[in-house]
TrEMBL record:
PROSITE patterns: PPR. Keywords: Repeat. It comes from the Eukaryota. Residues 38-59 are annotated as: Disordered. Belongs to the PPR family. P subfamily. It comes from Eutrema salsugineum. Transmembrane segments: none annotated. InterPro entries: PPR_rpt (IPR002885), TPR-like_helical_dom_sf (IPR011990). The keyword Repeat applies. One of its GO terms (molecular function) is mRNA binding. Pfam families: PPR, PPR_1, PPR_2. This is Pentacotripeptide-repeat region of PRORP domain-containing protein. NCBIfam families: PPR. PPR repeats lie at residues 227-261, 262-296, 297-331, 332-366.
Protein backbone atom coordinates (compact mmCIF):
# COMPACT_ATOMS: atom_id res chain seq x y z
CA UNK A 1 0.00 0.00 0.00
CA UNK A 2 1.42 3.33 -0.94
CA UNK A 3 2.11 6.13 1.49
CA UNK A 4 -0.49 8.42 -0.07
CA UNK A 5 -3.28 5.84 0.34
CA UNK A 6 -2.42 5.27 4.00
CA UNK A 7 -2.65 9.07 4.76
CA UNK A 8 -6.15 9.25 3.19
CA UNK A 9 -7.35 6.28 5.27
CA UNK A 10 -6.01 7.87 8.47
CA UNK A 11 -7.67 11.25 7.74
CA UNK A 12 -11.04 9.66 7.05
CA UNK A 13 -10.92 7.67 10.27
CA UNK A 14 -10.34 10.81 12.46
CA UNK A 15 -13.64 12.05 14.10
CA UNK A 16 -14.56 15.77 13.83
CA UNK A 17 -17.02 17.69 15.92
CA UNK A 18 -20.44 17.81 14.34
CA UNK A 19 -20.56 21.60 14.01
CA UNK A 20 -17.20 21.90 12.29
CA UNK A 21 -16.81 21.22 8.60
CA UNK A 22 -14.12 19.01 7.34
CA UNK A 23 -10.71 20.61 6.95
CA UNK A 24 -11.00 20.92 3.21
CA UNK A 25 -14.45 22.48 3.51
CA UNK A 26 -13.35 24.87 6.21
CA UNK A 27 -10.39 25.99 4.18
CA UNK A 28 -12.61 26.47 1.16
CA UNK A 29 -15.11 28.40 3.23
CA UNK A 30 -12.35 30.54 4.63
CA UNK A 31 -11.03 31.25 1.17
CA UNK A 32 -14.58 32.10 0.00
CA UNK A 33 -15.15 34.49 2.89
CA UNK A 34 -11.87 36.21 2.20
CA UNK A 35 -12.78 36.67 -1.43
CA UNK A 36 -16.17 38.21 -0.48
CA UNK A 37 -14.54 40.55 2.04
CA UNK A 38 -12.05 41.70 -0.56
CA UNK A 39 -14.85 42.37 -3.08
CA UNK A 40 -16.94 44.27 -0.56
CA UNK A 41 -13.97 46.34 0.50
CA UNK A 42 -13.18 47.22 -3.13
CA UNK A 43 -16.80 48.19 -4.00
CA UNK A 44 -18.06 51.68 -2.98
CA UNK A 45 -19.89 51.80 0.35
CA UNK A 46 -23.69 52.50 0.27
CA UNK A 47 -24.71 54.93 3.02
CA UNK A 48 -27.53 53.82 5.29
CA UNK A 49 -30.97 55.34 4.74
CA UNK A 50 -31.53 58.36 6.97
CA UNK A 51 -34.15 57.90 9.63
CA UNK A 52 -36.40 60.86 10.37
CA UNK A 53 -36.29 61.94 13.97
CA UNK A 54 -39.70 61.99 15.66
CA UNK A 55 -39.03 65.56 16.83
CA UNK A 56 -38.67 66.74 13.21
CA UNK A 57 -42.11 65.48 12.07
CA UNK A 58 -44.29 68.59 11.24
CA UNK A 59 -47.46 68.75 13.29
CA UNK A 60 -50.63 70.33 11.92
CA UNK A 61 -51.81 73.61 13.35
CA UNK A 62 -55.30 73.83 14.89
CA UNK A 63 -56.39 76.01 11.96
CA UNK A 64 -55.31 73.35 9.46
CA UNK A 65 -57.05 70.65 11.45
CA UNK A 66 -60.29 72.64 11.55
CA UNK A 67 -60.02 73.40 7.85
CA UNK A 68 -59.63 69.69 6.97
CA UNK A 69 -62.55 68.84 9.25
CA UNK A 70 -64.87 71.29 7.51
CA UNK A 71 -63.69 70.21 4.09
CA UNK A 72 -64.56 66.62 4.96
CA UNK A 73 -67.99 67.75 6.17
CA UNK A 74 -68.67 69.36 2.82
CA UNK A 75 -69.61 66.26 0.89
CA UNK A 76 -69.27 66.10 -2.89
CA UNK A 77 -72.09 67.97 -4.58
CA UNK A 78 -72.45 70.53 -1.76
CA UNK A 79 -74.89 73.38 -2.33
CA UNK A 80 -74.82 77.13 -1.70
CA UNK A 81 -76.69 76.68 1.55
CA UNK A 82 -74.05 74.21 2.74
CA UNK A 83 -71.28 76.73 2.05
CA UNK A 84 -73.21 79.56 3.71
CA UNK A 85 -73.77 77.41 6.81
CA UNK A 86 -70.08 76.51 6.94
CA UNK A 87 -69.04 80.16 6.65
CA UNK A 88 -71.45 81.38 9.30
CA UNK A 89 -70.29 78.68 11.72
CA UNK A 90 -66.71 80.00 11.76
CA UNK A 91 -65.43 82.23 14.52
CA UNK A 92 -62.12 82.74 12.72
CA UNK A 93 -62.45 84.93 9.58
CA UNK A 94 -59.22 83.50 8.12
CA UNK A 95 -60.61 79.97 8.31
CA UNK A 96 -63.85 81.17 6.72
CA UNK A 97 -61.89 82.76 3.88
CA UNK A 98 -59.93 79.52 3.30
CA UNK A 99 -63.19 77.58 3.05
CA UNK A 100 -64.63 80.26 0.78
CA UNK A 101 -61.67 80.09 -1.61
CA UNK A 102 -61.46 76.28 -1.56
CA UNK A 103 -65.13 75.81 -2.41
CA UNK A 104 -64.85 78.32 -5.27
CA UNK A 105 -62.22 76.07 -6.92
CA UNK A 106 -64.39 72.96 -6.94
CA UNK A 107 -65.81 71.80 -10.23
CA UNK A 108 -69.44 72.59 -10.89
CA UNK A 109 -69.76 75.17 -8.12
CA UNK A 110 -69.88 78.99 -8.18
CA UNK A 111 -70.56 81.33 -5.28
CA UNK A 112 -73.88 83.15 -5.28
CA UNK A 113 -74.87 86.41 -3.53
CA UNK A 114 -75.63 84.63 -0.24
CA UNK A 115 -72.14 83.14 -0.02
CA UNK A 116 -70.51 86.50 -0.76
CA UNK A 117 -72.78 88.22 1.74
CA UNK A 118 -71.90 85.71 4.47
CA UNK A 119 -68.18 86.00 3.71
CA UNK A 120 -68.22 89.81 3.70
CA UNK A 121 -70.02 89.88 7.04
CA UNK A 122 -67.45 87.48 8.51
CA UNK A 123 -64.55 89.58 7.21
CA UNK A 124 -66.07 92.81 8.54
CA UNK A 125 -66.67 91.25 11.96
CA UNK A 126 -63.05 90.05 12.01
CA UNK A 127 -61.77 93.48 10.88
CA UNK A 128 -60.15 92.04 7.75
CA UNK A 129 -60.73 95.23 5.80
CA UNK A 130 -58.35 94.37 2.96
CA UNK A 131 -60.20 91.09 2.41
CA UNK A 132 -63.49 93.00 2.39
CA UNK A 133 -62.24 95.42 -0.26
CA UNK A 134 -61.09 92.50 -2.41
CA UNK A 135 -64.47 90.80 -2.09
CA UNK A 136 -66.25 94.07 -2.94
CA UNK A 137 -64.19 94.42 -6.10
CA UNK A 138 -65.17 90.88 -7.09
CA UNK A 139 -68.87 91.54 -6.47
CA UNK A 140 -68.88 94.83 -8.38
CA UNK A 141 -67.04 93.12 -11.24
CA UNK A 142 -69.91 90.61 -11.50
CA UNK A 143 -68.59 87.58 -9.63
CA UNK A 144 -72.12 86.76 -8.43
CA UNK A 145 -75.71 87.76 -8.98
CA UNK A 146 -76.97 91.00 -7.38
CA UNK A 147 -79.12 91.25 -4.28
CA UNK A 148 -80.23 94.21 -2.16
CA UNK A 149 -78.92 92.83 1.20
CA UNK A 150 -75.49 92.15 -0.30
CA UNK A 151 -75.18 95.57 -1.90
CA UNK A 152 -76.51 97.33 1.20
CA UNK A 153 -73.82 95.66 3.30
CA UNK A 154 -71.22 96.93 0.81
CA UNK A 155 -72.67 100.46 0.92
CA UNK A 156 -72.64 100.39 4.73
CA UNK A 157 -68.98 99.32 4.80
CA UNK A 158 -67.95 101.98 2.29
CA UNK A 159 -69.91 104.76 4.03
CA UNK A 160 -68.08 104.00 7.25
CA UNK A 161 -64.67 104.68 5.67
CA UNK A 162 -63.66 108.06 4.38
CA UNK A 163 -61.50 106.84 1.51
CA UNK A 164 -64.31 104.55 0.24
CA UNK A 165 -66.98 107.28 0.20
CA UNK A 166 -67.07 107.51 -3.62
CA UNK A 167 -67.12 103.71 -3.87
CA UNK A 168 -70.43 103.69 -1.99
CA UNK A 169 -72.02 105.85 -4.69
CA UNK A 170 -70.55 103.65 -7.41
CA UNK A 171 -72.36 100.69 -5.86
CA UNK A 172 -75.52 102.80 -5.53
CA UNK A 173 -75.41 103.74 -9.22
CA UNK A 174 -75.04 100.08 -10.15
CA UNK A 175 -78.12 99.32 -8.07
CA UNK A 176 -80.02 102.04 -9.94
CA UNK A 177 -79.16 100.40 -13.27
CA UNK A 178 -80.26 96.99 -11.99
CA UNK A 179 -83.68 95.57 -12.76
CA UNK A 180 -84.10 93.44 -9.65
CA UNK A 181 -81.92 95.11 -6.98
CA UNK A 182 -83.05 98.72 -6.80
CA UNK A 183 -81.99 100.85 -3.79
CA UNK A 184 -84.40 100.66 -0.85
CA UNK A 185 -85.00 102.88 2.18
CA UNK A 186 -81.97 101.46 3.98
CA UNK A 187 -79.72 102.38 1.04
CA UNK A 188 -80.89 106.00 1.01
CA UNK A 189 -80.64 106.24 4.78
CA UNK A 190 -76.98 105.19 4.78
CA UNK A 191 -76.03 107.49 1.91
CA UNK A 192 -77.80 110.53 3.37
CA UNK A 193 -76.29 109.90 6.78
CA UNK A 194 -72.83 109.68 5.23
CA UNK A 195 -73.39 112.98 3.40
CA UNK A 196 -74.64 114.75 6.54
CA UNK A 197 -71.41 113.86 8.36
CA UNK A 198 -69.60 116.15 5.93
CA UNK A 199 -71.82 119.17 6.67
CA UNK A 200 -69.32 120.65 9.12
CA UNK A 201 -68.74 124.03 7.45
CA UNK A 202 -71.11 126.29 5.54
CA UNK A 203 -69.06 126.40 2.32
CA UNK A 204 -68.68 122.61 2.38
CA UNK A 205 -72.42 122.17 2.96
CA UNK A 206 -73.26 123.69 -0.39
CA UNK A 207 -70.95 121.22 -2.14
CA UNK A 208 -72.83 118.21 -0.78
CA UNK A 209 -76.30 119.78 -0.86
CA UNK A 210 -76.55 118.96 -4.57
CA UNK A 211 -76.02 115.27 -3.77
CA UNK A 212 -78.77 115.43 -1.12
CA UNK A 213 -81.17 116.96 -3.65
CA UNK A 214 -80.29 114.31 -6.22
CA UNK A 215 -80.82 111.44 -3.78
CA UNK A 216 -84.14 112.91 -2.68
CA UNK A 217 -85.42 113.13 -6.25
CA UNK A 218 -84.26 109.60 -7.11
CA UNK A 219 -85.85 108.24 -3.95
CA UNK A 220 -89.19 109.80 -4.83
CA UNK A 221 -89.04 108.73 -8.48
CA UNK A 222 -88.28 105.12 -7.51
CA UNK A 223 -91.30 104.97 -5.22
CA UNK A 224 -89.39 104.61 -1.94
CA UNK A 225 -91.41 106.15 0.90
CA UNK A 226 -89.14 108.00 3.37
CA UNK A 227 -89.62 107.74 7.10
CA UNK A 228 -89.22 110.43 9.75
CA UNK A 229 -85.52 109.75 10.17
CA UNK A 230 -84.76 110.24 6.46
CA UNK A 231 -86.97 113.34 6.21
CA UNK A 232 -85.22 114.83 9.25
CA UNK A 233 -81.86 114.37 7.56
CA UNK A 234 -83.13 116.17 4.45
CA UNK A 235 -84.51 119.01 6.61
CA UNK A 236 -81.21 119.21 8.49
CA UNK A 237 -79.24 119.45 5.23
CA UNK A 238 -81.37 122.35 4.00
CA UNK A 239 -81.30 124.08 7.38
CA UNK A 240 -77.50 123.76 7.62
CA UNK A 241 -77.19 125.50 4.25
CA UNK A 242 -79.77 128.11 5.38
CA UNK A 243 -82.15 126.92 2.66
CA UNK A 244 -84.96 127.28 5.18
CA UNK A 245 -87.78 127.53 2.65
CA UNK A 246 -86.82 124.13 1.24
CA UNK A 247 -86.62 122.77 4.77
CA UNK A 248 -90.12 124.05 5.56
CA UNK A 249 -91.43 122.54 2.30
CA UNK A 250 -90.13 119.10 3.32
CA UNK A 251 -91.66 119.65 6.77
CA UNK A 252 -95.08 120.28 5.17
CA UNK A 253 -94.73 117.09 3.07
CA UNK A 254 -94.20 114.85 6.10
CA UNK A 255 -97.93 114.30 6.49
CA UNK A 256 -98.13 113.01 2.90
CA UNK A 257 -95.73 110.19 3.78
CA UNK A 258 -97.50 109.37 7.04
CA UNK A 259 -94.58 110.66 9.14
CA UNK A 260 -94.90 112.73 12.29
CA UNK A 261 -92.36 115.47 13.11
CA UNK A 262 -90.41 115.00 16.32
CA UNK A 263 -88.16 117.20 18.47
CA UNK A 264 -85.29 116.90 15.99
CA UNK A 265 -87.53 118.15 13.17
CA UNK A 266 -88.55 121.26 15.07
CA UNK A 267 -85.05 121.77 16.37
CA UNK A 268 -83.49 121.83 12.89
CA UNK A 269 -86.13 124.29 11.68
CA UNK A 270 -85.78 126.55 14.72
CA UNK A 271 -81.99 126.72 14.46
CA UNK A 272 -82.01 127.23 10.70
CA UNK A 273 -84.56 130.04 10.84
CA UNK A 274 -82.77 131.82 13.70
CA UNK A 275 -79.42 131.59 11.93
CA UNK A 276 -81.09 132.92 8.78
CA UNK A 277 -82.36 135.91 10.78
CA UNK A 278 -86.01 134.88 10.75
CA UNK A 279 -86.22 134.75 14.53
CA UNK A 280 -89.98 135.26 14.79
CA UNK A 281 -90.66 132.25 12.58
CA UNK A 282 -88.09 130.18 14.48
CA UNK A 283 -89.75 131.11 17.78
CA UNK A 284 -93.07 129.98 16.30
CA UNK A 285 -91.71 126.49 15.58
CA UNK A 286 -90.22 126.40 19.08
CA UNK A 287 -93.58 127.20 20.67
CA UNK A 288 -95.31 124.59 18.49
CA UNK A 289 -92.79 122.02 19.66
CA UNK A 290 -93.27 122.95 23.31
CA UNK A 291 -97.05 122.79 22.93
CA UNK A 292 -96.67 119.13 21.86
CA UNK A 293 -94.65 118.33 24.98
CA UNK A 294 -91.33 117.96 23.14
CA UNK A 295 -88.04 119.08 24.68
CA UNK A 296 -85.52 120.78 22.38
CA UNK A 297 -81.84 119.97 22.38
CA UNK A 298 -79.33 122.17 24.18
CA UNK A 299 -77.99 123.63 20.94
CA UNK A 300 -81.51 124.55 19.81
CA UNK A 301 -82.14 126.36 23.09
CA UNK A 302 -78.88 128.31 22.94
CA UNK A 303 -79.28 129.41 19.31
CA UNK A 304 -82.80 130.65 20.04
CA UNK A 305 -81.73 132.48 23.23
CA UNK A 306 -78.82 134.25 21.53
CA UNK A 307 -80.98 135.17 18.53
CA UNK A 308 -83.70 136.66 20.75
CA UNK A 309 -81.12 138.57 22.79
CA UNK A 310 -79.48 139.99 19.67
CA UNK A 311 -82.93 141.09 18.50
CA UNK A 312 -83.34 142.89 21.85
CA UNK A 313 -86.23 140.61 22.74
CA UNK A 314 -84.75 140.14 26.18
CA UNK A 315 -87.89 139.19 28.10
CA UNK A 316 -88.48 136.27 25.73
CA UNK A 317 -84.79 135.33 25.87
CA UNK A 318 -84.84 135.25 29.69
CA UNK A 319 -88.01 133.16 29.63
CA UNK A 320 -86.36 130.59 27.33
CA UNK A 321 -83.33 130.46 29.65
CA UNK A 322 -85.58 129.55 32.57
CA UNK A 323 -87.30 126.87 30.46
CA UNK A 324 -83.93 125.45 29.53
CA UNK A 325 -82.83 125.25 33.17
CA UNK A 326 -86.18 123.69 34.11
CA UNK A 327 -85.43 120.86 31.65
CA UNK A 328 -82.06 120.17 33.36
CA UNK A 329 -80.07 121.70 30.49
CA UNK A 330 -77.35 124.30 31.06
CA UNK A 331 -76.53 127.20 28.72
CA UNK A 332 -72.89 127.76 27.90
CA UNK A 333 -70.87 130.84 28.79
CA UNK A 334 -71.53 132.51 25.44
CA UNK A 335 -75.30 132.26 25.90
CA UNK A 336 -75.20 133.66 29.44
CA UNK A 337 -72.85 136.43 28.41
CA UNK A 338 -74.98 137.44 25.40
CA UNK A 339 -78.14 137.88 27.48
CA UNK A 340 -76.41 139.68 30.35
CA UNK A 341 -74.47 141.97 28.03
CA UNK A 342 -77.60 143.02 26.16
CA UNK A 343 -79.35 143.75 29.44
CA UNK A 344 -76.43 145.95 30.52
CA UNK A 345 -76.43 147.82 27.20
CA UNK A 346 -80.09 148.69 27.76
CA UNK A 347 -79.27 150.06 31.20
CA UNK A 348 -80.69 147.10 33.09
CA UNK A 349 -77.49 146.23 34.95
CA UNK A 350 -79.12 145.59 38.30
CA UNK A 351 -81.57 143.21 36.69
CA UNK A 352 -78.64 141.43 35.05
CA UNK A 353 -76.98 140.95 38.47
CA UNK A 354 -80.19 139.58 39.97
CA UNK A 355 -80.65 137.18 37.06
CA UNK A 356 -77.06 135.97 37.37
CA UNK A 357 -77.58 135.22 41.08
CA UNK A 358 -80.78 133.34 40.33
CA UNK A 359 -79.25 131.35 37.47
CA UNK A 360 -76.30 130.34 39.64
CA UNK A 361 -78.71 128.77 42.12
CA UNK A 362 -80.54 126.84 39.40
CA UNK A 363 -77.57 125.81 37.29
CA UNK A 364 -75.24 123.33 39.04
CA UNK A 365 -72.93 123.27 36.03
CA UNK A 366 -72.09 127.00 36.09
CA UNK A 367 -69.54 126.68 38.88
CA UNK A 368 -67.87 129.36 40.96
CA UNK A 369 -65.24 130.22 38.36
CA UNK A 370 -67.75 130.87 35.56
CA UNK A 371 -69.95 132.78 37.97
CA UNK A 372 -67.10 135.17 38.87
CA UNK A 373 -66.19 135.63 35.22
CA UNK A 374 -69.76 136.60 34.36
CA UNK A 375 -69.97 138.85 37.40
CA UNK A 376 -66.82 140.72 36.36
CA UNK A 377 -68.25 141.16 32.87
CA UNK A 378 -71.50 142.60 34.22
CA UNK A 379 -69.61 145.04 36.53
CA UNK A 380 -67.40 146.11 33.64
CA UNK A 381 -70.37 146.81 31.35
CA UNK A 382 -72.22 148.69 34.09
CA UNK A 383 -69.23 150.97 34.65
CA UNK A 384 -68.96 151.70 30.94
Amino acid sequence: MSATLRRLILLSSVKHPPNLPPPYLSSAASRLSLSFSSVSSSSPSIPPEPQTSPSRIRTRTPLETQFETWIQNLKPGFTHSDVVAALRAQSDPDLALDIFRWTAQQRGYKHNHEAYHAMIKQAIAGKRNKFVETLIDEVVAGACDMSVPLYNSIVRFCCGRKFLFNRAFDVYNKMLRSDSSKPDLETYTMLLSSLLKRFNKLNVCYVYLHAVRSLTKQMKSSGVIPDTFVLNMIIKAYAKCLEVDEAIRVFREMALYGSEPNAYTYGYLTKGLCEKGRVEQGLGFYKEMRSKGMVPSGSCYMVLICSLAMERRLSEAVEVVYEMLANSLSPDMLTYNTVLAELCREGRGNEALELLEEWKKRDPVMGERNYRTLMDEVYFLNKG
